[in-house]
Design brief:
This protein has 383 residues and is an alpha/beta fold. Helices cover 27% and strands 27% of the residues. The chain folds into two domains: 290 residues, Zn peptidases (Aminopeptidase), CATH 3.40.630.10; 85 residues, Urease, subunit C, domain 1, CATH 2.30.40.10. A hairpin with a 5-residue loop joins β11 and β12. It starts with a helix and ends with a strand. Its cofactor is Zn(2+).
């Protein structure tokens, strides 16, 4: 499908009841109740705090694809896009019929409901589920492993969200979407299994380049068998890591949501209509730059210090759950020369001193809603 057609499908099928960054079981349960009229939904386990973990099955094809989101509870963009995808697949008038006839999808929309509720990366036992693939010490890890063994997927989609710091290479281009074909051994061998994952990523990258040129990255493939993707890849199941990142002024991640949706449809259509035997078309994967860490949310440039030299101030937002909403709290992260780094927003101090609300010098680690620049209040809040 052409990009304009995919964008049109997204607008038509976007699940408007899901928005912003805080997505929990409470938000998706009404949707699951409606979807249960059309597809198989089951409770596949319980979290540490005994919240339900749901599994959805759709399609009747021979190619089995296992998809899970919110393994890290505060990474919700891919979950929103999953419900956009489900709305699309259930619309019989769309151009996605090949997906359902050729593939069977098993989707876990929120693997870590306790982390989602608390808006944390970790689960209620303070364990990172993406480092628990071997120990299987947590109930959520065991649920995913059980589904993996019973469903026997041909592909796995491991869905995540990434911070605003990432760049596509060491450039001024934001890594708005990132991927990885995880290693399956300590030597990071380019195995046939990895080649298959790389080929599919290459197809998604080709589609995204027409929308966000030079804003797609890949992660370092250093091997860690404790990571779920590395484990599944090591068991010869092509596994793809998706990372939903930042785009300009998109702290709600709604623009990125559309890009992830386009990636879903593009990759699933490709899998449905292509016999990917040995990943022979994998080489385009290596044209995607590795992620750098070149961004701050805000950089204040050329601020004067007490000795009259000039310095830069790097600010990162801390995402904080407050009364059921995510707030972005500006915190001073660096006070130093930040040449080679970029801000999603940049403020020129023009050699003036910068003070906090109490007219004190800024300190690393301090929270500041605004700063004083030349006797003017400059807001540091996201729009």
């Amino acid at each position: 499908m052409q990009i304009e057609e995919l964008k049109s499908l997204f607008l038509k099928h976007k699940e408007t009841s899901l928005f912003h960054r805080y997505i929990t079981n409470k938000h998706i349960k009404p949707l699951l109740n409606n979807l249960s009229k059309h597809l198989t939904i089951e409770t596949i386990g319980k979290s540490v705090l005994k919240d339900s973990i749901y599994g959805l099955k759709i399609g009747n094809g021979d190619k089995r694809i296992l998809i899970w989101s919110q393994m890290h509870g505060n990474e919700s963009t891919t979950t929103k896009a999953l419900f956009d995808l489900l709305n699309t697949l259930l619309d019989k008038s769309t151009e996605t019929k090949d997906i359902l006839s050729s593939c069977t999808l098993y989707i876990i929309p929120i693997l870590n409901p306790d982390g989602a509720q608390a808006y944390t990366r970790i689960n209620a036992n303070k364990v990172d589920l993406n480092r628990d693939a071997q120990n299987l010490s947590q109930p959520e890890s065991k649920v995913l492993r059980t589904v993996f063994e019973s469903f026997k997927p041909h592909f796995c989609y491991n869905l995540h969200g990434q911070r605003t710091i990432f760049s596509a290479g060491n450039t001024r281009k934001i890594a708005t979407v990132s991927f990885l074909a995880p290693a399956q051994d300590k030597d990071c061998t380019i195995t046939p299994t990895r080649k298959v994952a790389m080929e599919v990523i290459g197809v998604m990258n080709d589609a995204l380049q027409s929308i966000i040129p030079n804003q797609v990255g890949v992660y370092d493939d250093a091997f860690n068998l404790n990571c779920v993707g590395d484990t599944f890849q090591s068991e010869n199941v092509p596994t793809i890591l998706f990372e939903a990142g930042h785009s300009y002024n998109d702290y709600e991640r709604e623009n990125t949501r559309e890009l992830i949706y386009i990636s879903y449809i593009t990759s699933l259509n490709y899998i449905a209509n292509t016999s990917i035997i040995d990943g022979s078309k994998y080489e385009s994967y290596f044209k995607i730059p590795e992620n750098g860490k070149c961004f701050f949310d805000i950089i204040i440039r050329n601020a004067k210090t007490k000795d009259y030299s000039k310095i830069d101030i790097g600010i990162l937002y801390e995402e904080r759950l407050v009364d059921g909403k995510i707030e972005f709290i500006p915190k001073i992260n660096k006070i130093e020369n930040l040449n080679g780094f970029y801000g999603h927003k940049e403020i020129e101090a023009n050699g003036f001193e910068i003070f906090d609300a109490n007219k004190q010098c800024l300190k690393v680690g301090s929270e500041n809603v605004f700063v004083m620049l030349n006797n003017n209040e400059i807001s540091l809040l996201s729009k």
